[in-house]
């Protein structure tokens, strides 16, 4: 079967190669999936560059955690799935650190066998391409808004940038009745965010101290929830942008440290900083239920063909995208 591999020791996008592997057979507890679509996350760029958790890969690895497809074979012990079912893989398989795309083989392959406990049915109204956006970005945003301080109608939610996780956060926060403030480096992307329901927009290039705008837009209070996608470089701003008893969901690693990282600005507000590592299967099920009930459609920027996977990586790295980048398989 056709697959892509990130070669052992890869430190650049040149380490992503087309390859062949034997078509897998499902083990007794496994389903065999004809993968139809996979999506990229910022993590996948880090993996090919040897900069993800654990450093460069120690073996050739099929990349991408996020994929969806059709069940074409089931092991003898599988009760919950049958041939023809449309399924999406969970980010982690079994233990929280047994994650697809590194260290486990991922979904950028024509076929993938996974334990039946590591897949879920696709929400009814979603295509394979849409479902393939959910496992990492969708579940992470859902975790941020529902697992710690739950978003309530009327809350304010600040989310950073217009990548995959941020647009899910925007859509889910609007679904929950919140007021959404979103930042971007691009006015054009901010316009598109408004069309998706964002209430307030801030260009973080033009306003490097964007927390001031957040405070102004919230009557001096700050945001109840901050979906922190920037990391070390944006955290000091988020400490100032969060409101009394607010919560910062610590998710991203997009920026390097810049200035004072002291979190004391949060202390007097009784705010919380909560670390997030995607989310488990129970959270994914909750997300899927919310998607079905509310008719949410993930925002896909571009769908690339399988032959153009290297181009898809380059496109994500260019940060021209708005929402998700998907590969059809
Ligand atoms: N902890 C976890 O479990 C977890 C899960 C998923 C993702 N993540 C992390 O979360 C981050 C976002 O992931 P993703 O897959 O959504 O990435 P993505 O789709 O590649 O989004 C990247 C976007 O982030 C925005 N950005 C870059 N620098 C920024 C800054 N200084 N301030 C605000 N926004 C900035 C840009 O938006 P504009 O073009 O609009 O400026 C850029 O397009 C990454 O660091 C990723 O590794 C962590």
What this model shows, in words?
- The structure is a single chain.
- With 329 residues, this protein is an alpha/beta fold.
- Strands 3, 4, 5, 6, 7, 14 and 15 form a seven-stranded mixed beta sheet that branches. The chain has a six-stranded parallel beta sheet with strand order 10-9-8-11-12-13, with helices on both faces. A two-stranded antiparallel ribbon has the order 1-2.
- Helix 3 packs across helix 9 (281-294) and helix 6 (211-217) packs parallel to helix 7 (235-241).
- It folds into two domains: 2-136 and 279-328, Medium-chain alcohol dehydrogenases, catalytic domain (Quinone Oxidoreductase, Chain A, domain 1, Alpha-Beta Complex), CATH 3.90.180; 148-275, 3-Layer(aba) Sandwich (Rossmann fold).
- 26% of the residues lie in helices and 26% in strands.
- The chain is globular, with a radius of gyration of 20 Å.
- The mean pLDDT is 97.
- Bound molecules: NADP nicotinamide-adenine-dinucleotide phosphate (NAP).
- NADP nicotinamide-adenine-dinucleotide phosphate binds at residues 41-43, 136-137, 140, 160-166, 183-186, 189, 204, 229-230, 233-234, 251-255, 276-278, 316, 319.
- Residues 41-43, 136-137, 140, 160-166, 183-186, 189, 204, 229-230, 233-234, 251-255, 276-278, 316, 319 line the site of NADP nicotinamide-adenine-dinucleotide phosphate (NAP).
């Amino acid at each position: 079967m056709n697959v892509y591999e990130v070669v052992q020791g890869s430190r650049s996008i040149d380490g992503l190669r087309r390859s062949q592997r034997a078509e897998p057979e499902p083990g007794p507890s496994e389903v065999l999936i004809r993968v139809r679509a996979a999506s990229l996350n910022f993590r996948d760029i880090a993996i090919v560059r040897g900069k993800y958790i654990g450093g460069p890969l120690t073996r050739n690895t099929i990349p991408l955690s996020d994929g969806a497809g059709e069940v074409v074979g089931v092991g003898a012990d599988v009760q919950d799935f049958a041939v023809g079912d449309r399924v999406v893989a969970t980010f982690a398989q079994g233990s929280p650190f047994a994650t697809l795309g590194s260290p486990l083989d991922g979904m950028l392959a024509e076929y993938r066998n996974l334990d039946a406990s590591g897949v879920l049915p696709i929400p009814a109204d979603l295509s394979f391409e849409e479902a393939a956006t959910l496992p990492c970005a969708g579940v992470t945003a859902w975790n941020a808004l529902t697992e710690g301080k739950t978003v309530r109608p009327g809350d304010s939610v600040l989310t950073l940038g217009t990548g995959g996780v941020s647009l899910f956060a925007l859509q889910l926060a609007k679904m929950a009745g919140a007021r959404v403030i979103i930042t971007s480096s691009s006015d054009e992307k901010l316009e598109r965010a408004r069309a998706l329901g964002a209430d307030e927009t801030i260009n973080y290039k033009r306003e490097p101290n964007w927390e001031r705008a957040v405070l102004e837009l919230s009557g001096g209070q700050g945001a109840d929830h901050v979906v922190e996608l920037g990391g070390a470089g944006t955290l000091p701003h988020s400490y100032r942008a969060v409101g009394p008893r607010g919560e910062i969901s610590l998710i991203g690693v997009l920026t390097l440290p810049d200035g004072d990282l002291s979190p004391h600005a949060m202390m007097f507000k009784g705010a919380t900083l909560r670390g997030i590592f995607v989310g488990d299967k129970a959270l994914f099920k909750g997300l899927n239920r919310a998607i079905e009930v509310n008719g949410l459609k993930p925002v896909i920027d571009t769908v690339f063909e399988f032959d153009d996977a290297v181009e898809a990586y380059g496109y994500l790295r260019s940060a021209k995208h708005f929402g998700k980048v998907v590969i059809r398989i």
